[in-house]
Design brief:
alpha+beta, globular, 3-stranded mixed beta sheet, about 90 residues, single chain, 3 helices
Length: about 90
Amino acid sequence: MDANGQPSSADMRTQLLLTINNLEELIKSAGYDCKGIVRLNVYTTSVQDFFSTCMEVYQDFLHKHGIKQATPLLEVKGLFATLTVELEATVVR
C-alpha cells in the first residue's frame, strides 16, 4: 500500500520494498522493534517471481533485523487488488 492507502501496481520487487518499509514503520510506531519479529509469513502470487526478483531484498531485511526463524513463503491465487506480495508478522518485546 502506498502512503495514501492505495494498493501498488508496481512490480513485485518494488512492492516488497514498500511492504518492508510499511512493516518497519508500523512496528516502530507501535513501540516495538523489528528484532522482536518471531513469526513472518510471506504471501505472493508467484513464488517463481519472488525468488527471481525479490530474494536479495528479502534476505537483506532478514539480516538487518536478525530474523533467524523459518519464514514460510506461500503462493496464493490472489491478494487484494493489484498486490503481488504481502507480509504477515508477529512481534514481541
